[in-house]
């Protein structure tokens, strides 16, 4: 099976590894004028087609349900989109754990008025200069066509060595996609009798067979939805100072010290070494080896003595290991694209109260079965892992009665009184059409 890569927006299939990005949020004021820009953009987006040289900058485009409606996509198509997409992220806040300071009433604009958010243009670039040049060009073209108003923006910039603000290597465990043309690496796909195989493309891209060997549910016509994916966007604030204080206080009683305790929370050492393969110390050579640094499962670590069952990466992708087997995991995988925002907080520095964190994006065929399931059942609840109501120590809202994490050992260590470390500042659900879908949207006129 081969993907129609020339019609799939590129970041769905592969990470660009371009270190700076801008996200432009737009409102449709005039659907006819806006459609002309979309027709233009359909020929400008970076696709998944092979390139001989990585572009210096480029764009990708996604739409909210309100945006598709504003652009006069036919009612019969709109009615076929799933309920969670039509409702939008803010309406799903309770399910996602977006409560307290992370409740949508505290979100930043333009996410506090989601009905006005219609399009997101994502710009990726190799450096700050190219980003500013391309952003200016995109804004100039949008203004020239008319019909669209910029209502918000966000800049992202990768940190040194591919780490996120808590200090850990990020983006190691992406799923491999069948037919993508990207060579799979051990550990990225699904466990089978011969090691690892790529995940079926229909788990991520509409119009292709999924792990159940059926086409994922999608609105009609195929011209709109084939080669498209659903996109989750979340701006996640990371409280780095609180993370460090919590570790230092807990490590006073933990014999492994701060670094090991942090690794137990995450499931990897800061350099990316997996605890499943090197539980006692980081292994820089292993961490750098892409043929080995993701090649593990948890079948031989049922009790979590190497990697705690409540560790962040084990919750996000339980792999093979009782009670998780086969499709129970494969049906909940996501393609994750993320980039940091905000300045780093130097080691040992006091809290400067600046905004910093991660722009989290995920791509999937079903927001409900993939992103929402993982967020609500694996991150915000511990029942599936046999740890009761304990939430993920790294990203959980810690709204349960006794927020804690158990580190197996003799005796086990109880890291209790966990504080919230990650708070959503805003987000939304988008549909990322294929190039064919962009042309359909640009030609839509609301007719049945």
Short description:
This protein has about 450 residues and is an alpha+beta fold. The chain has 15 helices and 12 strands.
Question: Describe it for me?
Answer:
The chain is an alpha+beta fold and 448 residues long. The chain folds into 2 domains: 5-235 and 432-443, no CATH class; 238-330 and 367-426, no CATH class. It is built from 15 helices and 12 strands. The strands form 4 sheets. Strands 2-3-1-4 form a 4-stranded antiparallel beta sheet. It has a 4-stranded antiparallel beta sheet with strand order 8-9-7-12. Helix 2 runs antiparallel to helix 15 and helix 9 packs across helix 10. It is globular, with a radius of gyration of 22 Å. The relative contact order is 0.19.
Biggest sheet, strands in spatial order?
A: 2-3-1-4
Radius of gyration: 22 Å
Main sheet record? 4 strands, antiparallel
Which spans of ≥5 residues are poorly predicted at pLDDT below 50?
A: none
Count of helical stretches? 15
The gross shape turns out to be globular
Q: How many strand segments? A: 12
Order of helices and strands: HEHEHHHHEHEEEHEHHHHHEEHEEEH
Strand portion: 15-25%
Structural class: alpha+beta
Instruction: Give the N-terminus to C-terminus distance in angstroms.
Output: 33 Å
Average pLDDT value?
94
Number of self-contained structural domains: 2
| Helix content range | 25-40%
